[in-house]
Amino acid sequence: MKAPVWIRESIPRRKDAESLRKELRSRSLYTVCEEAKCPNIGECFARGTATILIMGNICTRNCRFCAIKTGKPLSLDWNEPRRVAEEVRNLKLKHAVITSPSRDDLKDSGASFFALTVEEIKKKNPDTTVEVLIPDFQGDLGALRLVINSGIDVLNHNIETVPRLYHEVRPEAIYERSLNLLKEASLYRPTIPVKSGLMVGLGESKKEVLKVMEDLREVDCNILTIGQYLRPSRELLSVKEYIPPEEFREYKEIGEEMGFDYIASAPLVRSSYRAEEGLEIYRQRNYNG
Fold first, then answer.
1. Per-residue CA distances from 137 to 111, 159, 172 (Å)
2. pLDDT of residue 244
3. What stretches in the chain show pLDDT beneath 50?
4. Domain residues for 183?
5. Residue 93: which of 152, 29, 49, 44 has the closest Cα?
6. pLDDT value of residue 158
7. Are the C-beta atoms of residues 71 and 113 closer than 8 Å to each other?
8. How many other C-beta atoms are found inside a 10 Å radius of the C-beta of residue 28?
9. Structural domain tally of the chain?
C-alpha cells in the first residue's frame, strides 16, 4: 500500500542523524531510533535527543511490527551504564529516555540493569530527568518496583495495539499483563507519571482504539502517544490502513476529555517523540496549581 502524501512529505531527513550516530557509536552505544527505523530520527538527532538502547540490540521476542533483531542476546556489559551516563552529560540532555529489547533470558528481565543505568545517569547528571521505556518484565512486579525505585521521572510501557491483534502483532505479549504493569506502577508511586503508546493502521477499529484508551485511563495512565504504524521491512506486518490526520486530532481531543494529562496523536508520533514536553506539561498540570 502506497503511503499517502501526508506521510511522505512529513518524514524528516535522515542525513541530519549522522553526527550523533557517530558520537554514540564511538562509545559502543545504540539507539532504538536506529534499530527500530524511526521516521523522526533526523529531526530528533538534529536536536541532540535520542532514546538510548541498553542491554544490546538483539531481542528475545519476535514482535511482528518491530525491526529490532530477534535472536540470542550477548552477555550484559556492566560498563554500559557508566558510558550511557557520560554520554547524557556530553550531549547535555535535559531529558534522557532509556529503553531495551525484551530480555526474557535474564532472571529479572533486565530490571536491575535499568536501575543501575538510571542511578548512574542521576549521579553524573542530577538535573537531567530520566524516562524509562520498559518491556513487560514478564509481569514481574518486583522487577517493576526495582526500576521505579532507581529515581526515574517517567515510567513508560507501550500497550502497542488493541487486544484482538495481540496474537498477530505481539505473539509473546499479553494485553492484560501490560495493562496490569501500568496499573501497578501508578499504584506503587502515584507521583511518577505513567505513560504508554499505541500504533494504529494495523487493522484495528476506531471503537477498539477508544476502548484501549479507556482501559489506560482506568489504570491511571497519564501520558499517551498515538502514531501511524509504518512497515520497517518487508518481513514485518503490512500496513492495513493509513489513518488521516483529522482522525489523529480526534483521538487527541477525546483523550483530553478522558483525562489524559498529555496526549500526542499524529501520523509520525512515536513513543519517545518530544518526550520532555509530555513530562513538562504533566508537571504543570499536577504541581503548579
1. 7, 13, 12
2. 95
3. 9, 13, 33, 35-36, 289
4. 5-287
5. 49
6. 97
7. no
8. 10
9. 1
Cβ distance 96 to 133 under 8 Å? Answer: no
> What CATH code is carried by the domain that includes residue 264?
3.80.30.20
pTM of the predicted model, to two decimals? 0.90
Q: CA-CA distance, 216 to 258, in Å (whole number)?
A: 10
Q: What are phi and psi of 262, to 5 degrees?
A: -150, 135
pLDDT of residue 93: 84
Half-sphere exposure of 231 toward its Cβ, with a 13 Å CA cutoff? 14
CA distance to 39, 44, 86, per residue, from 89 (Å): 26, 17, 5
Q: How far apart are alpha carbons 53 and 133 in whole angstroms? A: 10
pLDDT in tens, 187-216: 999 999 999 999 999 999 999 999 999 999
Q: For residue 197, which of 108, 91, 273, 145 has the smallest C-alpha distance?
A: 273
Specify the amino acid at residue 145.
R
